[in-house]
Every structure is written in structure tokens, then in C-alpha cells.
Amino acid sequence: MIPREILKKIRMIELRSNRLVTETLAGQYHSVFKGQGMNFDEVREYQPGDDIRSIDWNVTARMRHPYVKKFVEERELTVVLVVDLSGSGLFGSGEQSKRELAAEIASVLAFSAIRNNDKVGLLLFTEGVEKFIPPRKGRRHVLRVIREILFYEPKLRGTDLNTPLEFLSRVLTRRSIIVVVSDFLGQSAPSRREIAAHLRRKVVLSETLAQASLSSLRQANRRHDVVAVQVLDRFELRLPDLGYLVLKDAETGEVVEINTGDERRRRAFAERQERFQRDIRRIFASAGIDAIQLRTDQPYAAALGKFFEAREKRRRHG
Fold first, then answer.
1. Is the same domain home to 116 and 43?
2. Domain enclosing residue 269, as ranges
3. Which of 40, 152, 154, 164 could form a disulfide with 85 if both were Cys (CB 3.0 to 4.6 A apart)?
4. Residues of the chain where predicted confidence (pLDDT) is lower than 50
């Protein structure tokens, strides 16, 4: 029996997601994520303006009048939500944690998918693959996906993006849409190592980590359509001026005291974070992956809609 408070939370996310899908995103999802090809639908009489290459010569000869073949898009897709459950996802400086925002974004995409008769799967990961739910259709399946993202207790707390991508390369037999929902803050991210080192070190992505992630992303995007959704909190981009704080790293358990009242340190942290985010964007661009950054303190509906519009425009002219 699922506790009432859990059901209430899942139901609330479902209602918000369905409203957004109905009012805004349903048509955009259909336009942005295309099917796998074209299927023959029917034969009809030729009309002025039809492409002569579509003429069915056998039917035309039999009927003594030109007929053309009509095709429709093969619509059914498989969407796999790859959600980061590392310890950093529990952080949130406001009413919503990053993990809760991840569940809501995943819910919007999942309900958009099933409305288009697509299948939805889920892969939860930390340093390894925590749980894999094969793609299926239907509302009950999507509600299970939301529940797992919100309440699954991971066995590990670190982050390794390569492992889930390699796992999916083995289990997905056909081209799919892979949506990676993560903060993309690995062990070298400034919100971990910089705070733990009192913000003294220069922030760069570990070359090994960056190249490994880039290689996995490129390989995955060659076989599938990979989309990156980065979920962040405002305090991971800029430290607040709150004086001395005692902070605990959610993934390593390390505890450190820092003085956030020092303006120079806050400015240095913000500059280093911006460099780190540029590195992340460079990796996505190099791998040919569309990416969007969402924050726990900002509404996501408009940002998601603009992302879909921009993606559709790129695909149309690309």
C-alpha cells in the first residue's frame, strides 16, 4: 500500500503536468520528436501539384487514370528518461529540490509521450545503474515512473554518466529518444570540490571525466536522439551572502565551514561556475546534443516551450 502523502504528491505532479501538456506542449512534442520513417497508407487519385515520383504505375495502368501512393509518418517512438539520483539532487534552496524538479520535468515529457501513443522507459543512475524500467505505454506506467524518481532510495550517492549510456547501448535495440535529466556536476564540479577546498582551487572539468563523458554522449547520440536537461539550484551558480556556513557534501559526506560574507570569494565562485557551465555547454555542442538548463527557483514551462521551438527550428533548417 502506497502511503497517502506519496499518492498526493504524485497526483499533484500529474495534474500540473497534464495541464501544461494540454495547454502548451502537446503539439510541440509531436513536431520536435519525429517518427522513425514513413509507412504506406493508401492509394488515391492524382491531383495537380502531387509529386509525380509518388505515382503508383501499377494502379495507374489498371485504372487508366493516374493514382499516387500516400504515406504517413511512422509515429510510435520510444522515450527513455535517464534521471540522476546522486546525492546532490536532494539539494534545494527554496520550496523545491532538484530531484522534485527532475520528477516534474520527467512527468511532463512522459505525459506528452503517451498522449502521442509513444512508449516511456526510465533509467535511474548514480555511480551505476540503480534501476531500469523498460518502455511501456499508459497512465499507470507513467505514474510509476514519477513515483520511482521521487521516492526510490539509491544505493550509491556519486555520479557517473558513462555507465547508464553504455547500459542503454546494450538494451535499446531501436533508435530512441534519450532524455538525460541531471545537474551534470561530477566530482570535479565547483559546487563540490571548490566548497570542500574553501574555494581555493581553479575550477576545470577533469580532462579524463570530460573526454569520457563526451565520448559516451557522442556515441549515444549517433544511435539515438539524446537531449540533456540540466537541473540546477541558484546557490550552485552564485553563493548567497549568509556569513559563515557549515556545509555538507551530499555525495562525499565531507563537512566544511566557509565564509560566504567574503565578497571576493563569492565573485570568484560565480566566475568559476560560469567557466564550468561553459565547459558543459561545449561538451553538449561538440556531441551534437540539444540541451536546456532549468532552475528550482524559476518557472520551467516557458523555458521548456522556447527550447522545443528552438529545437524544431534547428531541425527544420538543419
1. no
2. 4-29+79-317
3. 154
4. 187-209
